[in-house]
Amino acid sequence: MASIYEQALGADFAKLHPRIQERFGFSSTDGIASIGEGVMEEIWYSKRVAIPLYIGNWRHIMFPQGGSQIPFTIGNYAYSDQFGRETVTWIRTFKFPQKIRRFDATMIYSRKREKIVDYLGTKQHLAVELNISAVPGGGIRIRSGQQRFYERFLQFRFPRWLTGEADVMEWYDDALDKYRISVQVNNPLIGTVFRYAGSFEAYFIDTDKQAIPLDARPLREERRE
User: Residue 185, Cβ neighbours under 10 Å: how many?
Assistant: First the structure.
């Protein structure tokens, strides 16, 4: 089975660096997961959005804390969710000196929308359309688009001025022999509200022998895309 990123990129998937293809090329049928361990050289947030970030932190959606040289891990597990959709987790853990922060997401490929939909947080109440592209040098770029809120019977699309528009770059640095990642979240009115950048090494584990951790899955899965 093609990974959700292969489905989104089509022929452009072949333009990715071989190590990026490894990290983004597996599916639930492969029985593996990618575990990354590294250091964030910088994590920064705007104090103007501290309250929204604090609220988002309750469901593992960003957080109001910054620092430098912060150890982190990222777990990418592929599985089929309760609706039969191919799903990939993004479980990011940031180990600050006095606090551990999480930023969780699960991604699916939506045939209806013909692109990846990213569910943020532990209860998949925030669905974000993603635009995926290959960039020169073999990196992958992920940019957020429309954002929708789903909670019980409530559903609506966020106006652009209320959203944080994410721009994610991941590439492989052959000189360092490490993956590098850069994330910046901007608001049309405020400007940059959150960013981080760092590097990591990654290895694969056998999920047939080592089950997907319970805390890697969302507490609730949302059918609406």
Answer: 21
Give the model's pLDDT for residue 210: 79
Helix ranges (DSSP H) in the chain: 4-9, 18-24, 50-57
Q: Buried b vs exposed e over 48-84: b needs ≥16 C-beta within 10 Å?
A: ebeebbeebbebbbbbbbbeeebebebbbbbbebeee
Give pTM, 2 decimals.
0.95
pLDDT over threshold 90, residue 201: yes
Give the H/E segment covering residue 43.
strand 32-45
- Are the beta carbons of 148 and 162 closer than 8 angstroms? no
192/131 Cα distance (integer angstroms): 19
CB 144 within 8 A of CB 127: no
How many CB atoms lie under 10 A from the CB of residue 119?
25
219 touches 122 (CB < 8 A): yes
Single-letter residue type at 96: F
